[in-house]
Amino acid sequence: EHLFQYEPGWNQTIEYSCDDPRLPEALRSFVTREGLNTTVVTPLVLSDNVLGWMTLCAVETPECSGQWWRIALIEAMARQAALALHHSRLVEHNRIEERRKAILDERNRLARDIHDTLAQGFGAILMQLQAAQREACVFSRAAAQSIETAIELARTHMVQARRSVGALRPNVSG
What we know:
By secondary structure, the protein is of the alpha+beta class. Helices cover 62% and strands 13% of the residues. The chain has a three-stranded antiparallel sheet, covered by helices on one side. It is rod-shaped. It starts with a helix and ends in a 6-residue tail after the last helix.
């Protein structure tokens, strides 16, 4: 919570002593109990985005107090961590996009198959039945009724096949 609320820590590395009043009491108690003297917090920054923070707690001895390299080291590590995190996110985004593309390709293939086989097949059957219906004078009334029923079934299934094709094709509005 402190890292989110403390705005200077979004842009620069902050060094805290173990009794720094900016730190939450629970953290001050922890570092004191563990014998730590310094906490260094640096943001993981990529462009203008803060991806998180890296924290280093250290023990300071009189012979190595105020070492400038500690901040330089954690900032270098933070830059590498930010790049690794960014790369990981790009790879994940790419994986999701490739999966989405594969799903769309499969849906389009299924839509083509339905259109090319079922819809065209029902269309051909419908044309043949309508041709037979025109010659219905040679058929009995029962045969003419069966042809009429077959025509209605072919129309109904052709409409359903077209709906299936429409449902499979993605809505790419917006």
